[in-house]
Amino acid sequence: MATELQATVSQEYKIYDPIHQKQQGNDLITGYYGHATTFTSPDITEAAFTLINDTYGTKITAANSNDTNLINERNDYYNNDWLPAVEKIRIDVNKVAAGKKSIVDLSGFHSTKVDPRHHEVGGVMALTATSGVPNSQEINYESKTVTDARSFFVTATPEQGVTVTKVGESIIFEVAPSDKPVQIIALPTTKKKGTFRGSSRGDIMNVNMLSTNGAGNIPLSNTANVVVP
């Protein structure tokens, strides 16, 4: 007998850009706090969350100046204040919804369906990457690991001079000194298999994938090495 999929909060907001994360916060104020008869026991008050979300918005705007200190302040506030507050709401929504999509959607979060037997973060994904057809400048990628994830984030960086690591909820690119521009491709997608382009022919690229399922972020995949055709 097939297992019925249950709805849960999608954690795709963790890979949103900051502006869309702020909008996610706005949606929660309207949805989660706007339906107090459904979500009766919030772990964080509407006033407290609104202040956190507004403060995050202020820091996002300030960081648009590209000042390194202001960017760091924005990122620190995301990790230490905004994200923990959103996580409290996510946990409560999943508890109240008990697998019902309509209630998850009412909260302002996006919903995703998962197998109730798989609510744990999966192991490292076995990623493969291959060259596309000759002269196409395309790279094919595919995660070989079975996962209930619905959100993926693929990155491609030059073999020389760039390392990719995962720290908490962040993907960190470390760029060594280079005498030419360093190209980093970042592709948010809902597919664990696909094709992307953008690199120069003959480049050797390292490809990684991060994925999110109902329990959180799956660890960064192995690095797949491929020559751009």
Any overview of this molecule?
By secondary structure, the protein is α+β, with helices and mostly antiparallel strands. The protein has 2 domains: 6-114, no CATH class; 127-227, Immunoglobulin-like, CATH 2.60.40. 30% of the residues lie in helices and 29% in strands. It has 4 helices and 12 strands; from the N terminus they run E-H-H-H-H-E-E-E-E-E-E-E-E-E-E-E. It has helices at residues 18-31, 46-63, 68-97, 101-106; strands spanning 6-9, 111-114, 127-131, 138-143, 151-158, 162-167, 170-175, 185-189, 193-197, 204-213, 216-218, 224-227. The strands form 4 sheets. Strands 5, 8, 10, 11 and 12 form a 5-stranded antiparallel beta sheet that branches. A hairpin with a 6-residue loop joins strand 3 and strand 4 (138-143). Helix 2 (46-63) packs antiparallel against helix 3 (68-97). It is globular and about 60 Å long.
Mean pLDDT: 82
Tell me the structural class: alpha+beta
**Please, what is the oligomeric state?**
single chain
Rounded to the nearest angstrom, the distance between the terminal CA atoms is 46 Å
Largest beta-sheet characterization: 5 strands, antiparallel
Question: TL;DR?
Answer:
The chain has 229 residues and is an alpha+beta fold.
Write out key terms for the chains shown.
30% helix; 229 residues; five-stranded antiparallel beta sheet; Immunoglobulin-like; 2 domains; alpha+beta
